[in-house]
């Protein structure tokens, strides 16, 4: 058993997880990123103290159900796989606070995500999402949502009913019009660049906007019937490309 209760087998090109790893029953962190995994052994269920599990950059087409038996998980990395859905059993992970499902094959956000009542951060960028389920408003602990690089044609209406959100990222979508976000008291940052929009979202004082016509420059104004566009040189703030280990937080 490692002294730091962590095992990192990232980048080993593994096709199978060595079963003896499952004997480390006090393990807290298990990193299996950047391998060729598409299966996990049922013995993984023995790791009931596991809080962080990284399965990103693998070949999973479906989430192994054994993952849903790890009820102490706080952080689950599933990005850069081939997932088209998530199992209903994911609802058993009621301690989950951070979920990464970016760069998969999701055409819709699985409604089971809306049952993760303690979720604080959701990374769902670079999928094929066209909308968000109204049940998302039930996630009253959710503070940051990353939706860049999807197929959203309108700003998701459910986000307008989530006053506790602090960060909203809808960069690189197909949104043409932004409603006012000024009524969201918790909002600190909205990223909306690389959309074919004709307006910037209105926000309350002190909220940072990243995109065209943000706080640095005004929105287009009409002169003699012509629209004069003012572009923004500032590059957008994108969500982290690589995961970083979060601050220690009791589960």
Question: Can you walk through the features of this model?
Answer:
- The chain has a ten-stranded parallel β-sheet with strand order 1-2-3-4-5-6-7-8-9-10, with no helix packed on it. The chain has a two-stranded antiparallel sheet with strand order 11-12.
- It has strands spanning 6-8, 29-31, 52-54, 75-77, 98-100, 121-123, 144-146, 167-169, 189-191, 208-210, 221-223, 226-228.
- With 251 residues, it is mainly β.
- It is 0% helix and 14% strand.
- Keywords: Leucine-rich repeat, Repeat.
Average pLDDT score: 89
Number of strands: 12
Please state the oligomeric state of the protein chains shown.
single chain
Provide the CATH architecture of the largest domain.
Answer: Alpha-Beta Horseshoe
Number of helices: 0
The main sheet orders its strands as 1-2-3-4-5-6-7-8-9-10
CATH class of the largest domain: Alpha Beta
The number of distinct structural domains comes to 2
**Shape call:** elongated
pLDDT below 50 for ≥5 consecutive residues: which ranges?
Answer: 221-242, 246-251
Strand content: 5-15%
Instruction: Specify the structural class.
Output: mainly beta
Share of helical residues: under 10%
How can the largest sheet be summarized? 10 strands, parallel
Question: What's the SSE pattern?
Answer: EEEEEEEEEEEE
Compute the gyration radius: what is it? 20 Å
Calculate the terminal CA-CA distance, rounded to whole Å.
Answer: 22 Å
CATH superfamily name of the largest domain? Ribonuclease Inhibitor
The CATH topology of the largest domain is what? Leucine-rich repeat, LRR (right-handed beta-alpha superhelix)
Keywords: Leucine-rich repeat, Repeat
Protein name: Leucine rich repeat containing 10
Pfam families: LRR_1
GO molecular function, one term: actin binding
């Amino acid at each position: 058993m490692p002294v730091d209760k962590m095992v990192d087998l990232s980048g080993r090109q593994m096709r199978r997880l060595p079963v003896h790893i499952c004997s480390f029953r006090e393990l807290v962190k298990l990193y299996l990123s950047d391998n060729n995994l598409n299966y996990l052994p049922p013995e993984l269920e023995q790791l009931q103290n596991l809080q962080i599990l990284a399965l990103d950059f693998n070949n999973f087409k479906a989430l192994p159900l054994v993952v849903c038996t790890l009820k102490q998980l706080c952080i689950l990395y599933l990005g850069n796989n081939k997932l088209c859905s998530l199992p209903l059993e994911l609802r058993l992970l009621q301690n989950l606070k951070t979920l990464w499902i970016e760069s998969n094959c999701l055409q819709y956000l699985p409604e089971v995500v809306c049952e993760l009542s303690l979720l604080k951060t959701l990374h769902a960028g670079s999928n094929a999402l066209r909308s968000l389920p109204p049940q998302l408003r039930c996630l009253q602990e959710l503070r940051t949502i990353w939706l860049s690089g999807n197929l959203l044609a309108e700003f998701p209406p459910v986000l307008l009913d989530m006053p506790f959100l602090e960060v909203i990222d809808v960069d690189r979508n197909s949104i043409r019009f932004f409603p006012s976000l000024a009524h969201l008291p918790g909002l600190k940052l909205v990223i909306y660049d690389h959309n074919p929009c004709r307006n910037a979202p209105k926000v309350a004082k002190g909220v940072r906007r990243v995109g065209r016509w943000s706080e640095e420059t005004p929105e287009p104004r009409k002169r003699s019937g012509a629209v004069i566009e003012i572009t923004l040189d500032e590059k957008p703030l994108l969500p982290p490309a690589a995961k970083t280990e979060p601050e220690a937080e009791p589960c």
